[in-house]
Amino acid sequence: MAAAPTARTRTAASNTATWRDVAPAAVVLVGGPEEYLGIRAMDQVRSQVRTASPDVEVTRMNAGSYEAGSLAMNVSPSLFGESKLIEVEGVESMNEAFLSDALAYLAHPEPDAVLVLRHAGGVRGKKLLDAVKAAGWPVVDCQPLKKDADKAAFVTAEFRAAGRRIEADAVQALVNAVGANLSELAAACSQLIADATAAVTTDMVDRYYGGRIEATAFKVADAAMAGNGPAALSTLRHALATGADPVPLVAALAAKLRTVAKVAGAQGSSAQIARELGMQPWLVEQAQRDVRRWTPEGLVRAIQATAEADAQVKGLSRDPVYAVEHAVTVIAMSARQR
Question: Looking at the predicted structure, is the pLDDT value of residue 1 above 60?
Fold first, then answer.
């Protein structure tokens, strides 16, 4: 199969690929703990293999319960000449039989087979992972997207791949609303892409996902940071009355304050600051607008109040609701009114 070159065609250096652009090869390693990206990477390879060879024979196995000889048996050419796709899960829990057979296979992979190895992280199987990388086969690193900037880039790429538009502010609104879980964020992108007839706006994101706790938390934070105490407290009390947990509410306050504090101490253009801090330029510009409302003393006071509230909502206080309300009040009063 043309999509699965033999070992002789590979270079000695590892061929790093992203989950979006990984292509089939005789061996593909999909590593890292982010399950959703791992699934997408394997889907990408499977889709391309099936496009090239609609009659491909797909076999799935688990490296932890592997039986010796199974790999060689499943990759062997069939009487009818079908291509083979072997997907191996649980490589991080592989047994010795799989390690031995996989290492032997790397030396002589079948030209009409694609072997995809899914390793979810950890040190077990390092000998096999190193061998795959040394042979130059494609390696996809699926790490969790922890920074909002990375999640925003993910959302933007999803819309771009679908040929649809989403406004910059709407990207951040969507991340705020459903960004805690990557699979939920991807599902939200798919829903908006399917339903929107024009560019997705913050209003549309709010209609779909404004009831989510994460979205409510950032509404509270935005109002407090703007110095609008009544609006912040009203939104906060509504959120708490409908079951919101004080912990993510305080986390949203802390996140906004950290961003403003970082940008306040940075020098250069928004693009330069964005590169230095690993943030999206538009998010830096938003923080630069917020900075104008703050004196250094006011920012310190707000950060201290939020740190105290964080400790209180995590067990140091019997009244976490009061702790959040106090932090919101201090933040709103510390911001300079325009």
Answer: no
